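Justification of resources, computational component.

The compute hours requested in this renewal are based largely on the per-chain cost of generating structure records like the one below. Each record pairs the submitted sequence with a full structure-token output. That output is archived, and it is also reused by downstream analysis tasks.
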Amino acid sequence: MDPKALETEAQSAIAGAATLAELEDARVRYLGRKSDLAQALRAVRDRETGMTLNSLRDRLEAQVEQRRAELERAELNQRLAGDEVDVTWPGEQFPVGHLHPTTQTRRQIEDAFLSLGYEIRDDREVETTEFNFDKLAFDEWHPARSPRATFFFDETHVLRTETSPSQIFALQEREPPIYMVSIGRVYRRDDIDATHYPIFHQFEGLAVDRHITLADLKGTLLHVMRAIFGPERRVRFRTHYFPFTEPSIEPDVSCGICGGAGCRTCRYSGWIEMGGAGMVDPRVFQNVGVDPDEWSGFAFGCGIERVAQLHYDFPDIRPLWEGDLRVLTQF
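The structure output for this chain reads:
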């Protein structure tokens, strides 16, 4: 192999490469593992020949890198010259997240009560039986005290079954009048079905003042229900029993899935129960040192997922907890 002739041939091929692909072909042909130069280097037996061939390889590699830089720069200049960008065009629309339907509903509820002058609060989720049951006048025999209905940590601590303990905290913290709504997660050993889930969010309110009546409670709930569902949805009230209210009522909202005709979601009744409400039982006032002869009040509680289900006409409450983006991105 004649080193000078090889160098002249290689330099001509490298300089004549018009594209990066052609340059790579030339590099492999003259500097690759199977090239004449590589084979000659493997056969070297004297120092002088080795220095000559190594020097040739270094010169050719340097020329390849120089030519590569020239071709890359030329390619970039060509691309920049050919690409035109109209800066007045609308930019690319990237997908963005949005609030979960439950959070959207929660904010609607907060807005409805803030407009009435209520304060919003949330308290601890791990609660004592004293505040979750005793001070709310739950009788010892009440089913909610059973481990079959409530998640117990030990004999005196539970995952709160409702946000009602916030009512006790508010009554102990200051003198009436009090207008407050507590919003947060609650836990019950409910069987999962179209309208029930063992974890859910609840909003629970308390109003304590002089001369409050059941009519004030009904008017408040009607205002909130109409603010959330619109005036076309029907609302009814039924008498019921709750440990910490007397008298007690349950508000129902007409089912938007079937329009009140009856379906699986409303159990073919045309109505979906929203929660519980009633006038605060005098025993609750006595438990926190409030004079029931001077003060009266009402309390109410509803599940936020149940409200979201009715608001968005979900046939089933479970998708609100399953995190399926095919469902959630629609809202």
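The two ends are 76 Å apart (CA to CA). Residues 47 and 279 are 106 Å apart (CA to CA).
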